[in-house]
Amino acid sequence: MTQFTSGGVPLDHIAAVFESERAEYSRGHPRSLERTGHGIAGYYDGVPMHWMRDWPMPFPFVVAEAHGSLLRDIDGNEYADFCLGDTGSMFGHSPPAVAEAITRQATRGLTYMLPTEDTIAVGRLLAERFGLPHWQVATTATDANRFALRVARAATGRPKILVFNGCYHGTVDETFVRLVDGRAVVRPGLLGQVADLTQLARVVEFNDLPALAEALSHRDVACVITEPVMTNSCMVLPEPDFHAGLRRLTRETGTLLLIDETHTISTGPGGYTRAYGLEPDLFVVGKPIAGGVPASVWGFTDDVARRLDEARKATPPGHSGMGTTLSANALALAAMRATLERVMTPEAYAHMERLAGQLAAGLQASVSKHRLPWHVVRVGARVEFICAPGPLRNGTEAEAAHAPALERAMHLALLNRGCLIAPFHNMMLVSPVTHETQVERLVAAFDAAGARLAND
User: Fold this and answer.
1) d(C-alpha 194, C-alpha 330), whole Å
2) Among candidates 124, 17, 117, 1, which has minimal Cα distance to 454?
3) Fewest CB atoms within 10 A around its CB: which of 140, 216, 236, 423?
4) Does the predicted TM-score (pTM) go above 0.90?
5) What's the CA gap between 72 and 61, in Å, rounded?
6) At 455, is the pLDDT very low, low, confident or very high (cuts 50, 70, 90)?
7) CB atoms within 10 A of CB 434
8) Alpha-carbon gap, residue 155 to 152, rounded angstroms
9) 436-454 vs 346-369: helix axis angle to the nearest 10?
């Protein structure tokens, strides 16, 4: 009889491990079971945001508090937190400098549609940190990406954008396309979608420069939007010549280049862009830029600013399609200034890099010991284990590498051993306040869970 497997592990064994871990989780969370086991009253589907249902646990545990890299639930369980709000708290929960700034600003007003002294400081800090001269502030990276793409279209007079298959840029409409049999189709699962997104976007595989050249040759693409490393899936690293080729092809065809560093800001103080000398026309970073307070920023070059000025002069007065009243609010700017000045430091990143290297090495050693056909990949403080051989080259390979049932069992086993990782994929983040003992704990938990799944 054929034995079906996922990631080299028999499916019936994965199911048995998951059921055992599920029972263990339920026994350890009686108060959370009472509060959330049948859904939280007042919320559609029992949760305030639908992705709270995406955790591998049978019901969400209720958080009591989180400090630094430690999280506690209402049942008294403690977790070494390597999810860190899926990057939103990448620098730890409530960094003291950010907490102080929030407390101080809270007594002065939270939002009033006017600049503060923090606003003035942040403008200088963004230009110095990321190397682009012109900045705007939004509330989420999705907003920042939307606004930047609108500017790219205005600056170029072109209608289309180009994305890479399997990309992630929040909930930007035009990015919800994928390649199927060599043609662009709308990604499945979208609710209420009425416009044909394939009319607005071209899509090619990451790392495929010939396909990129052909797609840009039509000269109707305003902007390529990309992460420098594909994340929010099974991580895909750029091949050695990819970014140089991407920049050359975009310049040759008059196409703008937008680098979205919302996740890859894990690379260093100036993100992957500064670490590897990339030269984007537009740049976006969200999630951790204000230490956990909702905020994002997007910047652009002098040339884009000049072309935007020309487009605005030729446009009748009216609404630009960019805004949101709470963007650039005083509270967010206070938190952002504290984060840029006192939290996102070279010393913090050095600590993150060192421990992330230890984590990746420990996980890979465990994979090898248990003879699992998996691999581990890292970009700065961001580490992922992938339940398939690697490295992966593009979004199609990344999608094929997913092993949902196996990953769910692995996540729940880690959680029951006191380690929390991101629910949507196998991402782990090391913060400036993560301790070496917590990394050791995660490696040990991974090794124990891997041994159980490998039946060693």
Assistant:
1) 37
2) 17
3) 140
4) yes
5) 10
6) confident
7) 26
8) 5
9) 20
